[in-house]
């Protein structure tokens, strides 16, 4: 890192957990190191092929199903060298548990559901999980759901606590088709979409002659 005081500060990606009703920030999970690559895929939702109607061939049924996949590394070595007590006692367990907790319902909810079932109570809808928002710089702020999480622990201390690990994270973008327009997540998705439209308007259009076309189509 440059020692110049005016050097730009490196931003880090991460997940912000929000209360799904109030929108209050519950927790921030930052990536220790930004991934070198990120893969995004968009599955288009068209209706032309489904209906068989030629007049529908150019219509879009809704936002595409977008997925984001990235790999990141976390390392407790620096903290161990400074004698920080938490990594010395538990290694990377807390950081890994914070991510893994996003894939589990809370234990209190499972106990409550089991007690309700044992008493013969009618099934109650599970409590809402926090809304996860993937933040990767100011141009990418989008509500997501953890679809896949793979952890490779590569090194351990003498207590067998992991001290270096690689994460493979798969995220599915939540659109208004999933969570509606009125929810906090729906508003974030629409802001994400509108920002894409503004960025698209900044892209220069190519000249037809670059495509070997010298007259009207």
Short characterization:
With about 220 residues, the protein is of the alpha+beta class. Helix content is about 25%, strand content about 30%.
Characterization of this structure:
With 217 residues, the protein is α+β, with helices and mostly antiparallel strands. The chain has one domain (15-36, 67-196). The chain is 27% helix and 28% strand. A seven-stranded antiparallel sheet has the order 2-1-5-6-7-4-3. The longest helix has 19 residues, at 184-202. The model has no long low-confidence stretch (mean pLDDT 87).
Unreliable parts: none
CA distance, first residue to last residue: 52 Å
Number of helices: 7
Give the overall shape.
globular
Question: What is the strand tally?
Answer: 7
Could you give the order of strands across the largest sheet?
Answer: 2-1-5-6-7-4-3
Q: What characterizes the major β-sheet? A: 7 strands, antiparallel
Multimerization status? single chain
User: Helix content range of the residues, please?
Assistant: 25-40%
Structural class: alpha+beta
Strand-residue proportion:
25-35%
Secondary-structure element pattern, one letter each: EEEHEHHHHEEEHH
CA gyration radius, whole angstroms: 23 Å
Question: What number of domains?
Answer: 1
The average pLDDT score comes to 87
């Amino acid at each position: 890192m440059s020692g110049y005081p005016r050097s730009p500060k490196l931003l880090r990606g991460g997940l912000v957990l929000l209360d799904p009703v109030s929108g209050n920030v519950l927790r921030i999970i930052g990536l220790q190191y930004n991934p070198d690559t990120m893969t995004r895929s968009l599955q288009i939702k068209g209706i032309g092929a489904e209906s068989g109607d030629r007049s529908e061939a150019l219509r879009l049924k809704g936002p595409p199903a977008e997925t984001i996949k990235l790999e990141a590394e976390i390392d407790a070595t620096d903290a161990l060298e400074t004698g920080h007590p938490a990594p010395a006692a538990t290694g990377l367990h807390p950081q890994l548990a914070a991510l893994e907790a996003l894939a589990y319902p809370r234990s209190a909810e499972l106990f409550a559901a089991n007690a309700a079932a044992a008493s013969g109570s009618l099934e109650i809808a599970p409590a809402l999980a926090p809304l996860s928002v993937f933040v990767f710089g100011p141009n990418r702020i989008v509500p997501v759901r953890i679809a896949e999480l793979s952890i490779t622990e590569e090194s351990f201390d003498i207590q067998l606590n992991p001290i270096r690990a690689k994460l493979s994270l798969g995220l599915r973008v939540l659109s208004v088709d999933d969570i509606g327009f009125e929810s906090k997540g729906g508003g974030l998705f629409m802001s994400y979409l509108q920002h894409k439209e503004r960025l698209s308007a900044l892209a220069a259009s190519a000249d037809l002659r670059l495509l070997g076309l010298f007259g009207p189509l």
